[in-house]
């Protein structure tokens, strides 16, 4: 606790400054928004940063304090600027409204939601730091010295991929197939990195084929996140060793993806999901749509709509904030209770409510989406925390999430030989859902069954003497 003073005292000062500017909502929003960038500075660059000393800072960016914080807080806090600009009458930083801006009730709601998001950012980082600075005296494991780890990782990745395909055929095992597939993707990415560093043709070939195959499949799904995740994984792994190259390509790549993905995904969904065309045909048409000059205006319009409503989802947060507690009291422990019920296997509870239906009910109650609309618009952790207990819930649940994230990462590193396989492959493979977060019902499920998957893999590798106690 003593060591984290350099973080939480200045962070909370910024939060209370934002809170004190309640009557100036636009300024309050900006202070809270900039506060998240200040937290990035405090945790990554300041003299008071709390970083593990076992590796150089640049070689541990897949740990929660770096990658998870960047993605989670980036989506939760930083991307709201597009919605705020749209509210002010701007589009792509250009003034499009002919009337002067006037503060409204919505301005106050946007500022409130940004303050809540900033508070959640403080909470999750504080949770990570408190666990990260503790001393561990538990048993560590490493890969057997007589075995080549590069080859072992290749085999584990390949077996995980085959197992994931097999489990897809069994409804009760489908969730495990997702975790195993993620493990296979991270194994392939790590293998590719090892091959490039060691100039090993076999590792480069395997890693490139597996990663490329997964990336191609991601382009058929219609989900923007699947493509973005593949790019994030590759760039995050390569950055410590190819800093200038990755730094040079990062911003142009992100810009291009954010520019084309909304339109690309909408074409895929419109044609492939409806059954009108095959996924491959829909993908070809999506590429044609993007490349045709006459569609540029449509792409720009679709992209701005994505940036303002789907990228950050603060618009939905403001809807909840206007509904609770003004028109409906806080949910209390109801959401958490539903989350634990969702954990029960349906074989033991045949009448268990469908998790998606339960999660969507609070969206309907707030009047954000019509019940007849066939869309999924689930909440995020910060929203469920707020809906449960207001500001206290937003802070408490995000703090617990930070604690759990770091505990799970430490366990993965302790079981699987340290940072490279433990953090990069097992933690991020089994708990990738923590990167952006989901509603409580799905997140608790992801955490519990992700841990079960990691534990089973650990037991199998221990039984085969691939992992041995570290002396």
Task: Write the topology of this structure.
Elements: H1 5-20, H2 25-44, H3 64-76, H4 81-88, E1 90-91, E2 94-95, H5 105-132, E3 141-143, H6 149-167, H7 174-198, H8 201-221, H9 224-238, H10 243-273, H11 279-291, H12 296-310, H13 314-323, H14 334-343, H15 355-365, H16 381-415, H17 419-430, H18 440-463, E4 467-469
Write up what this structure looks like.
This protein has 471 residues and is mainly alpha-helical. It has a domain at 5-132. Helices cover 69% and strands 2% of the residues. It is built from 18 helices and 4 strands. It has helices at residues 5-20, 25-44, 64-76, 81-88, 105-132, 149-167, 174-198, 201-221, 224-238, 243-273, 279-291, 296-310, 314-323, 334-343, 355-365, 381-415, 419-430, 440-463, and strands at residues 90-91, 94-95, 141-143, 467-469. A two-stranded antiparallel ribbon has the order 1-2. A hairpin with a 2-residue loop joins β1 (90-91) and β2. α4 crosses α12 (296-310), α10 (243-273) crosses α11 and α14 (334-343) packs parallel to α18 (440-463). The radius of gyration is 23 Å and the shape is globular. The relative contact order is 0.12. The model has no long low-confidence stretch (mean pLDDT 87).
């Amino acid at each position: 606790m003593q060591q984290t003073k350099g973080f939480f005292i200045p962070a909370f000062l910024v939060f209370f400054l934002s809170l004190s500017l309640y009557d100036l909502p636009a300024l309050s929003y900006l202070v809270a928004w900039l506060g998240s960038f200040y937290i990035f500075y405090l945790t990554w660059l300041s003299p008071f940063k709390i970083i593990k000393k076992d590796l150089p800072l640049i070689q541990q960016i897949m740990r929660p304090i770096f990658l998870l914080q960047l993605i989670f807080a980036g989506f939760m806090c930083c991307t709201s600027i597009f919605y705020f600009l749209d509210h002010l009458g701007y589009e792509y930083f250009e003034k499009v409204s002919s009337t002067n801006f006037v503060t409204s009730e919505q301005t106050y709601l946007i500022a409130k939601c940004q303050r809540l998001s900033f508070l959640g950012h403080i909470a999750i980082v504080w949770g990570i730091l408190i666990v990260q600075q503790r001393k561990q005296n538990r048993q560590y494991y490493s890969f057997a010295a007589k075995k080549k780890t590069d080859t072992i990782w290749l085999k584990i990745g390949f077996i995980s991929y085959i197992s994931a395909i097999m489990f897809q055929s069994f409804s009760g095992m489908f969730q495990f197939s997702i975790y195993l597939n993620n493990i296979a993707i991270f194994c392939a990415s790590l293998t590719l990195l090892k091959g490039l560093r060691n100039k090993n043709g076999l590792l480069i070939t395997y890693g490139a084929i597996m990663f490329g195959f997964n990336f191609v499949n991601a382009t058929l799904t219609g989900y923007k996140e699947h493509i973005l995740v593949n790019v994030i994984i590759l760039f995050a792994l390569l950055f410590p060793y190819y800093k200038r190259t990755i730094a040079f390509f990062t911003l142009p790549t992100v810009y291009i993806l954010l520019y084309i993905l909304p339109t690309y995904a909408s074409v895929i969904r419109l044609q492939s999901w409806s059954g009108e065309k095959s996924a491959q045909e829909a993908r070809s048409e999506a590429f044609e749509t993007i490349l045709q000059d006459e569609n540029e205006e449509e792409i720009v319009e679709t992209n701005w709509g994505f940036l303002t409503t789907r990228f950050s989802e603060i618009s939905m947060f403001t809807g909840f904030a206007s509904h609770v507690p003004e028109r409906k009291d806080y949910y209390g422990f109801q959401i958490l209770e539903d989350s634990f019920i969702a954990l029960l296997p349906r074989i033991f509870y045949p009448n268990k409510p469908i998790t998606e239906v339960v999660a969507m009910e609070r969206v309907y109650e707030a009047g954000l989406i019509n019940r007849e609309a066939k869309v999924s618009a689930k909440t995020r952790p910060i929203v469920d925390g707020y809906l449960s207990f207001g500001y206290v819930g937003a802070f408490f649940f995000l703090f617990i999430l930070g604690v759990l994230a770091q505990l799970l990462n430490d366990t993965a590193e302790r079981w699987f030989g340290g940072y490279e396989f433990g953090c990069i492959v097992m933690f991020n493979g089994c708990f990738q859902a923590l990167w952006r977060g989901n509603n409580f019902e799905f997140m608790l499920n992801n955490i519990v069954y992700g841990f079960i998957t990691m534990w089973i893999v650990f037991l199998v590798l221990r039984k085969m003497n691939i992992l041995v106690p570290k002396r």
